[in-house]
Design a protein that fits this description.
Helix content: 10-25%
Radius of gyration: 25 Å
Strand order of the largest sheet: 2-4-5-7-6
Low-confidence stretches: none
Distance between the termini: 63 Å
Number of strands: 14
Strand content: 35-45%
Mean pLDDT: 86
Shape: elongated
Order of helices and strands: HHHEEEEEHEEEEEEEHHEE
Largest sheet: 5 strands, mixed, barrel
Oligomer: single chain
Number of helices: 6
Structural class: alpha+beta
């Protein structure tokens, strides 16, 4: 039978075994020979109080247009909110990817109120449940995406809000860390690379000169969670997000504030290991409001 999800739903609802359900399907077909197997299965589901409409999907099952779609997984990638021209009007969208054991799929949030909330609360590595989304094919890359409009929601599961200690970080995947930024190195805040040979340079490339240089924000510091400390780097957009948390107008003022402000941060980071030394690269960052009293 193709609709294995429905067999499982009947099993959970009635306690019947898979073999018993298959036998009931054969009996139903013997009574109504024109019935197809899946139609007979849906009849048995209805008779046993199971609505024969799939709501919960795995990523690899989202391969057509589906309304009222529920799906659970881990946020594998998250992008900044952007504006697009949608049929002559400007619209905001927030896109992230969710992965489960069957694959990865893009999720696009259109509702402005939901975008505002998810910008601050959603992080890579979070376990989420999508409720009442709908899937459509992206005409630009010919893949299916899940869309969240006014009636859909993205629930961040409470279990994903647990933080890992620096002494117990995982070298694979992402880590959620809550720690204080106790030092920020301000002498080298940009990474300069040659875009042709992709080498890091100081002033200019020995081969290509200064005609193909790329300048990327790079903020490096030390974080401390009360038990351990570790070096961490905030690159590009994540570095800009860190700067946005600071007071001051100029880059120098923001760096000074971050260096001495004792900021407590929620950080999503991945581990880098080189010659036995471990450091972190931040994938997302937000500020924690705390009270010292």
């Amino acid at each position: 039978m193709e609709e294995n999800w429905l067999v499982k739903a009947i099993e959970e609802k009635t306690g019947l075994s898979k073999e018993k359900i298959e036998a009931m399907v054969k009996e139903k077909i013997s009574q109504f020979p024109a019935l197809e197997e899946n139609a007979a299965l849906r009849m048995i589901a209805t008779e046993n109080g199971v609505v024969p409409v799939q709501r919960v999907f795995k990523v690899n099952e989202v391969n057509r247009d589906i309304n009222h779609l529920d799906l659970s997984g881990v946020v594998s990638r998250k992008f900044s909110t952007k504006q697009i021209n949608l049929n002559g009007r400007l619209a905001q969208l927030l896109k992230f990817f969710v992965a489960d054991e069957t694959g990865e799929i893009g999720v696009v949030v259109w509702d402005t109120n939901k975008i505002a909330a998810l910008e601050a609360s959603l992080h890579e590595g979070d376990n989420v449940t999508i409720v009442n989304g709908y899937s459509k094919k992206n005409k630009f890359n010919d893949t299916y995406e899940i869309n969240i409009g006014k009636v859909g929601t993205v629930n961040i599961n409470s279990s994903s809000n647990k933080f890992v200690k620096l002494s117990n970080i995982s070298k694979t995947g992402t880590n959620r860390i809550r720690a204080f930024l106790v030092r920020l190195f301000t002498d080298n805040t940009f990474l300069v690379k040659c875009t042709i040979c992709n080498k890091r340079v100081v002033d200019k490339c020995d081969i290509h000169g200064d005609k193909a240089l790329s300048k990327v924000l790079m903020l490096t510091g030390i974080i401390d969670d009360g038990n351990s400390n570790m070096r961490i780097t905030f690159f590009d957009k994540v570095g800009e997000k860190l700067l946005s948390l600071a007071n001051g107008g100029t880059l120098e003022e923001k760096l000074a504030d971050l260096s001495f402000g004792l900021y407590q941060l929620d950080i999503v980071a991945v581990v880098n290991e080189f010659n036995g030394n471990i450091s972190l690269t931040a994938r997302d960052v937000s500020r924690v409001n705390y009270d010292l009293q």
